[in-house]
Amino acid sequence: MLKITHKGGEVEEFFKTYMHNDRHLLMIGTVGFNNAGNYFPSVLANYQNVDYKFFLEERTIVPKVVLDMGKRNQDELTQQLKNHFVEFVPVQVVAEDSAPVAGRNATKLTRKWITTKKYTDIVVDVTSMSRGICFSVVRQVVEYCHANSIEPHILVAERDLSGVKIQPMSSDIACYMHGFQEDMETDLVDDALVMWIPQLSENAMSSLDNIYTSIKPSEVCPALPFPAIYPRRADELLLKFRQQLVQWEVELYDTIYAHESDPLDVCETIGRIHRTRKSVLECSVNTPVRTVLSPTGWRIGSIGMLLAAMENSLPVIYTENIGYTAGNIDDEILPTPSTYVPPNRWHIWMRCSN
After folding, report:
1. Contacts of 195 (CB under 8 A, 6+ apart)
2. What pTM, to 2 d.p., does this model score?
């Protein structure tokens, strides 16, 4: 795949020159509680021939204030996009038996959206998408577009850390993302040398413990954000995870440092490590070699993992968010929405190399 990227103000400039009357776009996004997810839809609302489809992710445990914030963002989108075709569709994230079904349910909807009308471009705005939906939908869209001469795009916007402390509640079940299992959990990899690359993040300790227990990797190479907006974040994550790192038998030279605000740095770092390890070990040992990813950290880094997984056919394992807690927010008082433009903005044009 050929990736053409733009960041910051380059994103808006790209669409100014790219959007002509002969282009007909479908934007697929998610309504979230963070209104950063409303930014790119409002940018594309300035152009004709743009249709919008939004997932409304349904979870079992969501505080009233989080639901109200999502409803406010949906109302804002409805007003901003009143001159366009807009559809909001609920998607169940977790089944009644607690099985993660977000990716499977989302791709069923996406299949209908991308095939019922002819588009020149399909844009997936992953700013507010959960990882279980984001990974599956992006892969589906990119593969469909490449097979049908349609241009696929990824958009992501991320604000600096907010004072609003809404924390995810992770499932105890570790599973491979829909479309990213590869040959894991088959007889082909019973004796595989598995390297696990998890993103370390402040709220992912129990989630990563569950994943580690599930896959029992041969080696662990945790990914840390550096450079980062907060320069000491990587050091503090190492301190926070010190017990896990001992349990996982991680040496300091096994850690991976990737730019917090650059998905391409994350993608290239993981791809380089995977290819080098695979070429060396497959020549010296008679056993399969696999690299497994777990995106649990900063969003732009997760997109880098997505790109690396698609380019190198890597499996991705995670635990789904079954709900949220809002520790520092009054249920009756909605936080004031942010009005500044998200500083971290990326456009990734996933053109087919041929």
Report:
1. 217, 218, 219, 220, 221, 273, 274, 277, 289, 290, 291, 292
2. 0.95
